[in-house]
Amino acid sequence: MERKQLQRQKEALAKEKKELQEVEARLGGADGLGASLREGIGELSAYDNHPGDLGSEMYERSKDLGLLENIRQQIAEIEEAQRALKEGTYGFCRSCGRSIAEMRLLALPRTLLCMQCQREKEGQSLEGRPVEEELLFPPFGRTFTDEEDSVIFDGEDSWEAVARYGTSSLSEKR
Question: pLDDT by residue (tens digit) across 120-148?
Fold first, then answer.
């Protein structure tokens, strides 16, 4: 990668990092997640509120926590890319060592993996995913297990139980 382009990538990384740090400061600051839930909703007491209202506030707060975690992950990726720039390894895949496509680096300056290695990582790794997802694989494939010797109450059995009360299908009249 030529010197001029490396300088542009360095500037792009610095700009993106600054923008993310500003968002992180807003989310984690005194007006955001830095405040307690009571301070955040501006109420003197939570006792006079409907539980649904507090549920909505908790949902929004947990969503903000997820966004904050994602922003911090992106900042860490940018810092790793900046270290690679200093070391002279920027533009080469951390996994296989091949050159990363220039278009990929322009679109995603913080990337340290080529497209092929990124696809392999996303396809195989459950890193960073909830542990419950291991039990849910394959998705939706386990609920209809109508096997000859299966005695579990599965998705098909639950559909049949509900269908006894009627369906919206015009072909079935009761």
Answer: 887 765 666 777 777 766 655 555 565 66
Crossing angle between the packed helical segments 3-28 and 51-87, to the nearest 10 degrees: 160
Tokens linked to 111: 């990337």
How many other C-beta atoms can be found within 10 angstroms of the C-beta atom of residue 160? 9
Structure tokens at 81: 């890319």
Residue 140 class from Cβ within 10 Å (0-12 exposed, 13-18 middle, 19+ buried)?
exposed
d(CA 116, CA 99): 11
DSSP helix, strand, coil percent of the chain (3-state; round to 5): 55, 0, 45
C-alpha neighbours within 13 Å on the C-beta side of residue 159: 7
Q: Which residues of 45-68 are buried (b: 16+ CB within 10 A; e: fewer)?
A: eeeeeeeeeeeebeeebeeeeeeb
Domain 3-123, what fold? Answer: Four Helix Bundle (Hemerythrin (Met), subunit A) (1.20.120)
Q: What is the pTM of this model?
A: 0.62
Express as a percent the part of the chain with pLDDT over 70: 72
